[in-house]
Specification:
The chain is mainly alpha-helical. It has one domain. 82% of the residues lie in helices and 0% in strands. The protein is built from eight helices and no strands. The longest helix is centred in the C-terminal third of the chain and has 61 residues. The protein is globular.
Length: 200
């Protein structure tokens, strides 16, 4: 059975590539509508676990924040360019034009903090950035909000992912054999019960 720590050490030697993946994934998932299909948090946590022993971990925080900031701007620019026509897009039709109208109105009233909080909600954040662009929110206010939100998001998932990942690997290393044995017993039990039910 391959050693998890050995695999992570091998992956960790490609720190530059991991940082590039973090940056690109953060842009793509934050772009309008794509966050619902590609949760960036998964990429961040995996990258954080691979880079945890390395000083590159802090660069991963910066790469994630920069990518999220750029991705949010893509959504903002789409909203700013299409304006009211956003209601006719396929993504908005899928979630409902009434929800889109409510989001746009909410952005107008509580723009800054809504953007900060929405950044922590997968899928929702991409629509909020576009709603901010479609509203009359000033760019400086949006940039400050999304910069703050992207920083919080990246620190939370990269540093938090590294801490939780390291704790899990330490536990898994100590309890690998008992855990695998327990899983094997449970699987065998389930198979036995299913066979008994079929033959009954």
């Amino acid at each position: 059975m391959p050693d998890i720590n050995q695999i992570l050490d091998t992956v960790g030697h490609h720190g530059g590539l991991i940082l590039a993946v973090v940056f690109i994934a953060s842009i793509v998932e934050a772009a309008f509508g794509l966050g619902a299909l590609l949760p960036g948090e998964t990429v961040l946590v995996l990258a954080a676990v691979a880079l945890a022993p390395s000083p590159l971990l802090m660069l991963a925080v910066l790469a994630a924040a920069a990518g999220a900031f750029i991705g949010d701007h893509i959504g903002f620019l789409i909203g700013r360019k299409l304006g009211a026509r956003m209601a006719g897009t396929a993504v908005v039709r899928r979630i409902g034009t009434d929800r889109w109208d409510a989001a746009t109105e909410f952005v107008k009233r509580r723009g800054f903090w809504l953007i900060v909080i929405a950044r922590l909600l997968p899928g929702v954040r991409t629509l909020v950035a576009a709603a901010a662009g479609a509203s009359d929110m000033r760019y400086r206010r949006f940039a400050l909000a999304t910069g703050t939100a992207a920083s919080i998001w990246s620190v939370l998932w990269v540093m938090g992912g590294a801490a939780l990942g390291s704790a899990f690997l330490e536990f898994a290393g100590k309890a690998a054999v008992p855990t695998l044995a327990a899983v094997a017993v449970i699987v065998a039990g389930i198979v036995a019960v299913r066979r008994a039910l079929r033959s009954a």
